[in-house]
Structures are given as C-alpha cells and as structure tokens.
Amino acid sequence: MTRPPGDRAARVALGRLGEPGDPRLAALVRELGAEAVFAYLREERDLAGVATDVAARLRGLDPERDLQRAAGLGIRFICPGDAEWPVRLSDLDHAETLNRRGGAPLGLWLRGVGRLDELCERSVSVVGSRSATTYGTSVAGQVAADVAAAGVTVVSGAAFGIDQAAHRGALAGRGPTVAVLACGVDRAYPFAHRDLLTYIADTGVVVGELAPGCAPTRLRFLARNRMIAALSLGTVVVEAAVRSGALNTANWASLLNRTVMGVPGPVTSAPSAGVHELLRTKAASLVTRGSDVLELVSPPGRYLSPPLRAAEEQRDRLSEHDQRVLDAVPVASAASAASLARTAGIGERAVVEALQRLRSGGFVETSADLWRLDSRRHAEDQQ
Amino acid sequence: MTRPPGDRAARVALGRLGEPGDPRLAALVRELGAEAVFAYLREERDLAGVATDVAARLRGLDPERDLQRAAGLGIRFICPGDAEWPVRLSDLDHAETLNRRGGAPLGLWLRGVGRLDELCERSVSVVGSRSATTYGTSVAGQVAADVAAAGVTVVSGAAFGIDQAAHRGALAGRGPTVAVLACGVDRAYPFAHRDLLTYIADTGVVVGELAPGCAPTRLRFLARNRMIAALSLGTVVVEAAVRSGALNTANWASLLNRTVMGVPGPVTSAPSAGVHELLRTKAASLVTRGSDVLELVSPPGRYLSPPLRAAEEQRDRLSEHDQRVLDAVPVASAASAASLARTAGIGERAVVEALQRLRSGGFVETSADLWRLDSRRHAEDQQ
Lengths: 383, 383
Description:
Two copies of one chain form a homodimer.
Chain A: H1 7-17, H2 23-32, H3 34-42, H4 54-59, H5 63-72, E1 75-78, H6 91-94, E2 108-111, H7 116-119, E3 123-127, H8 134-149, E4 153-156, H9 162-172, E5 177-181, H10 194-203, E6 205-208, H11 218-230, E7 234-237, H12 245-255, E8 259-262, H13 270-280, E9 285-286, H14 290-297, H15 320-328, E10 335-336, H16 337-344, H17 348-360, E11 364-367, E12 370-373
Parallel strand pairs in A: 3-4, 3-7, 4-5, 5-6, 7-8, 8-9
Antiparallel strand pairs in A: 1-2, 2-6, 10-12, 11-12
Helix pairs in contact in A: 1-3, 1-5, 2-3, 8-9, 8-14, 9-10, 11-12, 15-16, 15-17, 16-17
C-alpha cells in the first residue's frame, strides 16, 4: 500500500491490527481520527503501546483490496458517518470497560439485505446458554417470535441453544433478526448454523467487527457480547449458568444503560441460576413473555403488557350481596340460614333469598334446612 | 351471663359477635376498650352499625364458660397485655384494609407447646397454591427446612400443597412452625391434616382468631391471611396462580411493610404465574433458597446469602499471561504461534513458552506447527 488510505480504509487496516474492542485503539481513533492514527502508527510512533511491530504490519496491509474482496463475497464495511451506521454504538465510547474490552467498533462488516441502522431502531437482544434446556429454547423462541411479530428486531449471537432459538423464533414470527458474530461474517460458527446464518442474511443482517476470514476466539466472544448489548434497546437473558457468557452480555447492557431482562425458570435448574442471580440482585427485570419485553423497551406508557387474568369465575358475576352470603358458607360443613345471616351480617330473610338464587346457580346445596357449598364446585385456591 | 366480664372475657364475647378482621369492631375496641364496647353493645347502643340483633346475642353468650371449655381442650386464649401476645400484631391497626378485612385480632386461640411471642420474634411465612406442583412442594419444603434449621419459625396456613410442604419442611429441619387456621384450633381443616396439626402443636403452636368449634368460610380465610402476614417478618410465596389466596397474603405482607418474597418457576407453569407477576411488578423480591430468605429478613449486613459459585475451572488457576494466550486460540480452528502472538499482543517467544505450558496442562494441542484448543476440553458457555 503506497498512498495514504481514506478514513474507511484506515479503519479496515487498524481493525486488522488489533483485537476487536481494544479500548486504547478506540480512544485514539475517537480523538485523532482513523487516518491520523494510521499515519502515526505507520511511522512507528507507538502512541500508547498498542503493538510493537505495528509499522511493518501496517505497511503490509492492503485495506482497499480487503474491501474489494469482501464486496465480492457480498460483504460491506460500514463506519461512522455512513447512513447505515447505528448511532447507538457510540454509547460504547462513554461506557466503562469490561474484561479490558470497550469502545465503539472501528467499523462493522455486514452481510445481508437488512439495513442495520433501521433494524436497530427497535431491537431487543435475546441471549442465553449454549447448553440450554428444551424449556429455555422453547421460551426463547416464543419470546423472540412475539417481539419480532411486533416489528422489533431480535439480536443474538447465532450460538447453539438460546441464540439459535431466538433467531429461529424471530424468523418464525416473520420479523427481522440480526446475528452478531465473533468471527468474519463470511464464516459460519458454529458450522452447523451455516444455513441459519444464510436465512438471517436473507431477511436481516449478519454483523461482525472482524474482517472476513477471521476465526473466533474467547477474547473475540467477549468483545462481540458488547456489540450485542450496544445494538439493542434491551437484553433478555433466558437461561444462563452462573458463569455463562450471556451474563457478560447482560453486564454490558447494564453498563450501556440498556434494559436488562431475565426469564426465570425452576430454581432447581442450573441453567437458570445465573438469570435468578441477575433478578435477585435487581440487575434485571423479570419478564415471562414477549409483551413484558415490549413494555419494558417501549417509551413509558406506549405499550402496556396486558394483565394476566384468570378465566372469569362464575362467582365474579354474582352481586356483591350474594357473594357476601356465599363467602359466609362454611367450606367443609353445613350451616343454618340463621347462622349464615350472623356470619354475613345480613338479615335472615335476605340471606334465604340469596341462598335460593345461589342454589339455582349451582353454588350451594341444601338438605334438612342446612346449607353447604355445592359439592361439585371447588373454591379452589381462592382462599 | 350476669356480671360484666373483664377485658379477656369481653374480647371472647365480642369475637363471637362479629367476623374475624372486622375493622370497625377492631377500631372500637382499640379506642374504647373491649369492656366498654361490650357494655355499650349489650345496652343495644349500636355504635357503628356492627350488628342489629347484637344485644340479644351478647346477653346469650358466656365467655367465661367458653374459656373454661377451651382450657379443657388444651386451648388457651391470649390478648393484648398478655406476655405471649405478639406485639407485632398491632401493626394491623395501622395498616389499610383489604377485602374489607383489617385491624388487630381481638384475641387469639392457641393450641400447642410453643410460646407465640417467642416463635414470632424471627419468623417467615411460606405460603402458596393448594394445587401445587411437585416442583413447588419440593422447593417450599427445602426453603422451610433451611430457614427452620437456622432457628427461624415457619408460619403457614396448614392447607394442602405449599402450606403443608412448608410445615413439613420446618418439622424436618427440626425447627419451630406455626399454623394459622381460619377455623377453631380444635378443628382440623383440611381433615387430612389432622396428624400434621398435632405434630405442629407438639413443637410449635396452632393459632386462630375463631373460637373453638367455628367452621372455616371464604371470608375467614381472607381474614386469616392477614394474620399469617402480620405474624412474620416476611412472606415467601412459592407457587400461586393468578387468583391465588397466597397473593392475598402477599398483599397483606406488603401493606404491613413486611418483606415479600417469591420463588420463581417455569414461565410455562400456571401455578407460578402469580409469583412472576409479583416479581415483575417489583412487589416481591426473588429468592431461590433458604439463605436468600434469611438474608432478606435479617438486619442489614447480619446475614449474607453465600454467592453462587460455579465449580472453579482449571483455567482460573492459570496465570493472567497464560489465560491471555489461551483466549487468543481460535475456538474451532488452528493458528500459528505468530498469529496467536499478534492476537494476544504478546511477543512470539513468550507465546510459544505459554503454549507449551498450556499443552502440558491439557488446554491446547499442536500439530504441524499449528495450535488449537484441546479437543477433549470445551470452553463450554463461557464465551
């Protein structure tokens, strides 16, 4: 490479140089601009100890060729200033670091028909354990399908388990979905999700910080998690063991002032233990269904999760007067109308009239002038 | 009854007159004293429309004989001023009403060897659905056993399902337990719990507002629930459908400024839906085990639930330097030492030395000068 690159190419080159989420590099680029940082580093002025053999490596790079090759694979590179750049990513520049990762990405590699900026306008990430249970994947899929059907983009990491269920749920809900990878977006990791990633690209977009061809490492997963959190209004954790990477994503969401949500499960299930810990420490809000999620990520008052209602009970349709008489009937024995009148605090004549109505409604039965609850009916669990 | 009764007998008589938890009667007794209210009512001066045929009924009562008969059944009556009276019950006089129930009880009928005031000093109620799942009863039993083993009294309502599991768990934890009934404490409701109630009385105490012989009604269950909440520092709801009576107890606990706690379950399980609603609306704190409960009902800083720890992983014992190299190894492919050195930002010689240590530790393997993660090891879910 002989002539100095423009901003875009400088970002591609700098991206090749360090690891994604290196907060020092991000800060330098933010302060000086990518072109200036590139020029300084190529002159071997190591501004912040970013690397030791930087100059030689930078001189060996050809970012313009990288961009052309990527275009040949149907992959584009976006960076700040592009219309498709999600402004929300700059929140990463103002957040603390986590696991020594941080800062907005220098740029993003994209594969797919979706426009990332539009997809991220209303988006929720759904993440969780790779070793999920069938309970976890079924709930994740349902939540994703429900929010996707409401036009909210589902962001996840395309991993086994919860991630896969979330993407599939979104696709099933005919909604948009975004996969954020810890490797080049031309690669399929895990390989078994090659077709899934193709489906995602067909309607949404596959995103990554790493140049095409790059392989995933543990460090890159940690950096990737900050992107999942940053690209969404909120993060839903479905199942996460105590040390799960999904909790790393939740921590990022929290650092970025996003809404952190958790779906509970049995307290006896290890894959739910990490979620329960988030909920117990109030680091996350409990959600049980898509509408709970929509309520939490919508502007206040804009979306209210419909209240859970038990099926209306027949007794709800009784007058308050008759309910009061019914409430006075012993649950397991019989009583005289006089006794019921005392218990209900209502005159005996009115009680007898009420009891007759209640009998024809099938609420009480009578024999030998004593009244009892209809044996076919249960006050089940309303005591 | 000819001579005017003392305070205790007046309370017994007034208790026979109205329904438990009648806030008007409680307020009158609080303001005027039981003897004065008794005297007024017997003179047919109906102070607050408490009843219409009061005077006649009061004249027909013999509270002294009630007390003697109860004593013959091993049942005692306690009221404010008695050493055994739990001072905490007066909180009910300052709380709002719920379902038109409220106010401190006029007195309590007790059966059992335990001293109620002492049992209530450190006490937690564990309540929930009568139609509980095996998950719910098993968790309720475990939580009750754990708090009981720590010397905290378990209060519940002796109903089927969660209540039963809570009492049994406490007995299994060799801890004290208190059953609060919606009927006379000489009765067994449900009848199937006759032996359970006897066990409870043998070590703890069975409590009720209603005179011996009285039958349970729905109204009395609602009044009883306020007692369960008032007698405890906090209420744990284990499983509760959307209309469960356990939610009524939780509401009482909340009105009384007690700690309200909920054990989550699968979001697909109807008996957990009411608990999730409490947790979602922040009306309750999530707990998963006895130690969480102990933390919440202990004075701040006195008891800390031990943190959940995943088993320490071997990689935790690596130096930070070696962990950094390990984090740079691709998760699904192989890389040269030079490439790993760039990714880790560490010199190649130091990387090779680290890789050799990691190989003997079984973390990585090598062939043809390329390094990969040891195939027998999984980075499972820590990405």
